[in-house]
Amino acid sequence: MGYLLWIFGFMGSHRFYYGRQITGVIWFFTLGLFFIGWIIDLLLIPGMSRSADSRFKSGPVDYDLAWILLTFLGWAGVHRMYMGKWITGVIYLCTGGLFLLGVLWDYLTLNEQLSDVNRGY
Q: Are 25 and 16 in contact (CB under 8 A)?
């Protein structure tokens, strides 16, 4: 999954996926540190994956699918609808992911949101 998100890594999606919010924000605003850090990350993904596996637990709402939906359709709120958050999903759909600021917020918090949703099951 990390390699798939790395394709859009210049937006930091793979860094957010692995729970590295600070560097994810830096990648988001600098296009992966002007694409240089993005290329270096290709070598760092295995270590980031091992670290994230120990922190985040799976459940009925799949992390990988939610991250794919956020990365490719975040502006439309499809990831929020998938998690059962229909109202905010429709709001995202009508506002372009709250003008992409909501998408950035979800990049920052999606792992925690998924943990909370999966705990409820």
A: no
